[in-house]
Amino acid sequence: MSSRLVASALLLKATALAAKTVPEVNGFYLDDGFRPSSSVHLGVAVALRKGGIVAPAIHNADTLSVDELMEGLRDLVGRARAGRLQRAEMADPTITVTNLGDLGVDSVFGVIYPPQVAMVGLGRVMEQPWAHNGMLGIRPVVTATLSADHRVSDGLRGARFLARLDELLQKPEEL
Amino acid sequence: MNGQDARAAVHRAINQVAPDVGPEDLEAGARLRQDLELDSLDFLRLVETIDTSTGVNIPERDYPQVSTVGGLIDYVTAHG
Questions:
Q1: What tens digit of pLDDT does each residue of B27-53 get?
Q2: What was the pLDDT predicted at A27?
Q3: Cβ of B18 and A49 within 8 Å?
Q4: Residue B23 structural domain
Q5: Which end of chain A, N or C, is less packed with Cβ atoms under 10 Å?
Q6: Which of the following CATH numbers is that of domain A7-174: 3.90.1720.10, 3.30.559.10, 1.20.1250.20, 1.20.1600.10?
Q7: Residues of A carrying an active site annotation
Q8: Residues A11 and A99 sit within 8 Å (Cβ to Cβ)
């Protein structure tokens, strides 16, 4: 039973790996400029059942297996909703993901939490007719968006991040 | 399992996953996602809680059958 996954776990893992390869989206912008982070602490926006939102971190998300990440997500959401997060988890995400797919939202344009420099928005995973190599098939499709701080990154780096995310999600079994 | 036990088990499990949902919200037609506002992780926890407490394992292909409180009670009744 405990090995069941939600789609978010795969999306989060791919996001963490993509962030690792594009340092300009992962870190903090402080008084003395941008400090990239060598680790990816992935902030996950969690809605609280009584209203409000928190975005605590799954630490070193890029190094976790999908199963470990799923456990981390489950643990984090459970503790967030019970009001039992630790201070470090709240303070140190290096990039945050907001995932509104559960609510049937197709795409979301997130607002960056300073001092972070990027926010990834994930919509609903839905089956769509999809043309590829001259063939039409039905595939699961998700719209991912990136909000990025132009003091640190630019369109090219943002595109590189999204392209890497796309590439990683094409082979979910390798995540 | 009889319907009454199944109903009690389902109500207990929902209360565990979403303590803010009141008994008055648990009408048979109430949809777990839309009306009770369970997200995918809450739903997964609910499925696991039901499995632990009743031994009824709900495979993913049967999720459409258990999208409402009543559907879930019927499922647990039939498979418990």
A1: 999 999 889 988 888 899 899 999 999
A2: 97
A3: yes
A4: 3-79
A5: N
A6: 3.30.559.10
A7: 150
A8: yes
